Amino acid sequence: MLKNWTNIFIYHLKNNKLFTALNVLGLSIGIAGLIFATLYWNDEQSYNDWNPEKNNVFQVLIDIGEDRIWSNAPVTFNPFLKDDPNIEKMMYCENWYESPLYKYNGKKIIIKKLFNAQNNFFDFFPFEFVQGNPKTALQNENSIAMKQETAALFFGTENPIGKQIQYEDKILTVTAIYKITGNSSIAPDAVVSNMKERLDRGKDSWGNFNNGWYIKLKDPSKTAELSKKLNAIYYQNKTIKDAKSEGISPKEFVSKYGKFTFILEPLSVSRLHSQGQGSPEGKGNYQFLLIMSGLSVLILILSIVNYINLATANAIRRAKEVGVRKIVGASKSDIIRQFLFETIITVLISILLALTIVELSLPYYNEFLDKELIIYGNQFYGQIILIFIITVIFAGVFPAIYVSNFETLKVLKGNFGRNKSGVWLRNGMLILQFAIASFFIVGSYIVYEQVRYLANKNLGFSGEQVLEIFYFKPESLLLAENSDKLIFNRYTIVKNELSKIKGVEQVTTGAFKFGGGNDSSSGFSYKGTSIQGQNLALDFGMLEMMKIEMAQGRYLNLKIASDTINSMMVNETALKIMNEKNPIGKIVDWNDQKLKIIGVVKDFNLFSPQGKVPPMVFFHFKTVPWTIGNLQHIYVKIKAENMEQTIAAIEKFWIKNVDSDYPFQYDFIDKSYMRTYKAYVKQKNLFSLLNGIVILIALFGLFALASYSIERRMKEIAIRKTLGAETDVLLKELSKQYIIFSVIGFLTALFPAYYLLNKWLENFANRIDITIYPFIIGFIVLLFLTLLVVLSRAYQATRMDVLKYLKYE
Questions:
Q1: Cα 197-203-209 angle, rounded to 5 deg
Q2: How many angstroms separate the CA atoms of 368 and 716, rounded?
Q3: Distance between terminal CA atoms of the chain?
Q4: Which of 133, 426, 589, 594 has its CA 20 to 30 A from that of 86?
Q5: CA 64 to mean position of chain CA atoms
Q6: 3-class secondary structure, 517
Q7: Cα–Cα distance, 309 to 622 (Å, whole number)
Q8: Are 600 and 551 spatial neighbours (Cβ–Cβ below 8 Å)?
Q9: What is the pLDDT of residue 690?
Q10: CA 652, CA 664: separation in Å to the nearest integer?
Q11: Could you give the C-alpha distances from 135 to 57, 127, 145, 253, in angstroms and in order?
């Protein structure tokens, strides 16, 4: 039986090469799209799956109000939690990666992702140890545990345990080698434990939010109790005490400064659903993941609908075969099984082709997502089997039942008419195809317009021809007495020397990064109103060089001594919260300092063009000396002429006089800022790519369906031509139903397209409004493509030889 079915399938394949090719290609493209989405979904969902502690370890986050949540906490809670029966362990860390340079036997190697944590780090992230003991690996402050790949960079095939590497004047001993077997929220190349000094420095400061904090619980179900306890401890030791020192009630203090709420977030959700800023490995884009998965499912649905339409339309050619088989004894179930068998073979071929497409395209896909995805794993193969079963069920069952229901006597007499319900169902699926195509065309246009709007938006600053040079500060300088003064003096010397280089127009700095924001935020009060502002410490000329304009008042001035003592500026957003029409000369209370407002800076998008502009305060580094430690970049404006020679001269000076070990790293501000919305550029590119695929699949189906429909009417066309019908009349008659279906499909897609794309646009503080134009353009494109396919096929039909179809009449 199977041999017979196979022979029949091969026979029809040979006689319907175009039909089979369109079916296989359409299905394979749809399945390939879903495989791509599945690989991405598996990778993002797998973060911390390897970690047996993922449901017991919690990161402490702080909600400071106004949709802002910090990932760093004070280190002052320890004495109040040491007897808590539900806390198994606690671990503080620097909640980011450092990239220091180490030396070994004449080699200089930068460890790109060095993580600094307390010595019990491996109790929270139990990586698989190749050498060494996780319990003792970080007991000594001069110890370092390395990832396998990092150890190979330093020592090759030598045994790394006991080897010593140098960082500035410090010698570190390698005590352990580990490997990371899955995606992890924290995945360092090496781990050190140099937290003691940081913790000692902040042990009495309830306002020092500088360290990441992880807690392992014995009973995760009691998370709410611990969160409540943390909030009560903070209230007693910070809110009440500060309120008392100000001579106001705690309630008035909270009303004035706001309330800090401590949240415990499990490690299991830290990648895709974190309320905070994410872990050192970054925060996943859950919305992008859903968009990609949803669009891929839509494309597969389109492919399956396309297959069903083509299969049922092609049934006319097999009607007599079904009739004969029934005459010789085949049952209805036999016919269904035969056609399901053919669908299974088609889907298998389509999956193999889809896997080939995925394998060949995977390098480009990985580059698109900044991933290293590969095809492997029992989970993935199980998903492929599930895709196979679902596709066979939806693509095969209806056509098989539809064909098996042909009435034997009618088809043998040449009457191939089908029941109306079958025709209506196929027409309904054709309308669904048009609706999906309409959604993609309109959506692609709106996404493109939004990303273009962001790219062309006035950001409030100009980074053209401004270099952002990474300024590495040695640890010896950071830990030295009077480090703030030493760091700034060193910067001043570098600034003066850089200014002498030919082609350099201006040199200045600020404790922030365009497109990256800054890590410093403090509250200040004015007339009883508390404003949580971003602290933007800077040097003279920074705002002027970036062409950031003033709304009121003036810039910081080198010639005015008070501008390095008690002067500050605010941005327009902060001024609105202050509710002060004439702020110049007014005094605000900033961290127990009395600072005078000398200017109002026009709002500019420091962080990214899609986000809201937060309240900002600006002051000179010397006004708040501790901010000098946050100086990480030097900004250099260069002339357009001989730009390459100028950069080369800067690099030569830098290597010789600033840092001969650490590599010279720079970027142009305008280019680095563009990367802040590359996720949305990716969404635009994804939508455009999938839009092309959807249109291609829809055109496949439309072409084949139009071909079969017109083929059934060839005798009618011949008779009409014989009776004198004009070509344009015939074309109009043949294309009319497809125009009607495309209009219905487009109208069906209107509300979903508007609703879903409006939800997507809600991610942007700066966004376009959805107008009627994308829908008009979408309709015109859909109608044009429909007429292009249908009329081209209909025109061929009108050029046929009339005698060929009428000679037997």
A1: 90
A2: 52
A3: 40
A4: 133
A5: 25
A6: strand
A7: 74
A8: yes
A9: 79
A10: 9
A11: 18, 12, 12, 45
Better pLDDT: 64 or 236: 236
Does 146 or 591 have the greater pLDDT score? 146
Per-residue DSSP letter, 211 = B
Residue type, 64: I
SS3 526: strand
Identify the H or E element spanning 447.
helix 420-456
CA 232, distance to chain mean position in Å, is: 36
Percent of the chain with pLDDT over 90: 40
HSE toward the beta carbon, residue 796, CA cutoff 13 A = 11
Strand partners of residue 303: none
Contact 349, 26 (CB under 8 A): no
| pLDDT band with cut points at 50, 70 and 90 for residue 808 | very low
Mean pLDDT of 618-647: 92
Q: What is the pLDDT of residues 742-775, one digit of tens each?
A: 899 999 999 999 999 998 888 888 889 999 999 9
- Residue 463: closest CA among 550, 545, 539: 545
Length of the chain counted residue by residue: 809
Separation CA 767–CA 748 (nearest Å): 26
Tokens matching residue 428 = 């309904």
Token match 């096929």: residue?
A: 793
Q: Percent helix, strand and coil across the chain, each rounded to 5?
A: 55, 15, 30
Asked whether residue 329 carries a pLDDT value surpassing 70, the answer given is no
Confidence label for 798 from pLDDT (cuts 50, 70 and 90): low
- Indicate the SS3 state at residue 261: strand
Q: Is 81 helix (H, G, I), strand (E, B) or coil?
A: helix
Residue 459 confidence (pLDDT): 85
131 burial (CB, 10 Å; 0-12 / 13-18 / 19+) is: middle
Burial category of 156 from C-beta neighbours within 10 Å (exposed 0-12, middle 13-18, buried 19 and up): exposed
Whole-number pLDDT of residue 97: 92
Residues 75 and 199: their CA atoms lie apart, in Å, by 6
Name the residue with higher pLDDT: 16 or 527: 527
Contact indicator for 162, 168 with CB cutoff of 8 Å: no
